[in-house]
Amino acid sequence: MVRTLKGYVTVRSFNRMAIPVPVQNMILRNYSQTMGMSYALPYGEHKYEDCYMQLFATMKAIPKSGDLGICSIFMLPINYPDLYQEFKDIVFYKKIKIHSIFEKVVIEKVVDFENVEETIKLRNIADLVDSQCLQIKSMIRPYKDDPSLIKS
């Protein structure tokens, strides 16, 4: 029996990327073909920020031991502990495998979720450092451009 990859896509940006839904579908379809799976078109997520209604509807529709395809782990509701825990509970209860294409991981065990959480924490730290570097550069740049601003 051929396994079916049920897609999950969103119109919102994730991990600093805004990927059109048709492109996300193409990525997921190509992945499913590569893995010898059929591809089930996803429900389209609502455009509202922090809305995961279609993710949970998709999880409900996936049969036990089924497969969910996402472009990136950054599409998951990890910044919302209650939603994220509910999501993990469904994954474990239904034994769903989550295929994250960009990170090249299949998430199905506790250790897999721990790795996802660590990756997202590292991204958040990198974003914070980038932001602080920009602030520092903005304070330094005027002096570099105009040496007369430097106090003696």
User: What is the CATH C-level name of the domain at 4-108?
Assistant: Alpha Beta
From the spread of the alpha carbons, the general shape counts as: elongated
What is the helix fraction of residues, given as a range? 40-55%
Strand content: 5-15%
Total DSSP E strands: 5
**What is the radius of gyration computed over CA atoms, rounded to a whole number of angstroms?**
20 Å
| Major sheet description | 5 strands, mixed
The succession of helices and strands, N to C, reads EHEHEHEEH
Low-confidence parts = none
What layout of secondary structure does this protein have?
Elements (H helix, E strand, L loop, with lengths): L3 E4 L13 H14 L3 E3 L12 H9 L5 E4 L10 H14 L2 E4 L4 E3 L2 H36 L7
Structural overview:
It is a single chain. By secondary structure, the protein is an alpha/beta fold. The protein has a domain at 4-108: Rossmann fold (3-Layer(aba) Sandwich), CATH 3.40.50. The chain contains 4 helices and 5 strands, in the order βαβαβαββα. The longest helix is centred in the last third of the chain and has 36 residues, at 110-145.
